[in-house]
């Protein structure tokens, strides 16, 4: 597996995209509205920052912002086969958020591992 992106929760999408673009020379290469979120990917050359802003007061990212405030939400690892990666995680006894791959941003297949079994880090598997 390889690093794919770090997901950052915010309630100030435009300001954060502008900041990361200027400071890290990371152009916005993809933006979409997806499952109640405004999502943008900024290209770092060897991975992305994924900026996540809720479009309403409900949903996973809105709840995260209420509990934790803005900041790092998850780390994503690229794999050629999300289902196989889930099988390995399951076999190793990790708690899964997703039992099966599902459609994520950019149309990629994704699945998450629960942070209770990964040292407090929400880990996403992503298959391009």
Describe this structure in words.
By secondary structure, this protein is of the alpha+beta class. Strands 2-3-4-1-5-8-7-6 form an 8-stranded mixed β-sheet. The chain contains 3 helices and 8 strands. The mean pLDDT is 97. It has one domain: 2,3-Dihydroxybiphenyl 1,2-Dioxygenase, domain 1 (Roll). The protein is globular, with a radius of gyration of 14 Å.
- Helix fraction? 10-25%
Q: Mean pLDDT, nearest integer? A: 97
Oligomer: single chain
Q: What is the CATH superfamily label?
A: 2,3-Dihydroxybiphenyl 1,2-Dioxygenase, domain 1
Radius of gyration: 14 Å
Give the tally of structural domains: 1
Spatial order of strands in the largest sheet: 2-3-4-1-5-8-7-6
User: Briefly, what CATH class?
Assistant: Alpha Beta
Low-pLDDT stretches are none
Distance between the termini: 12 Å
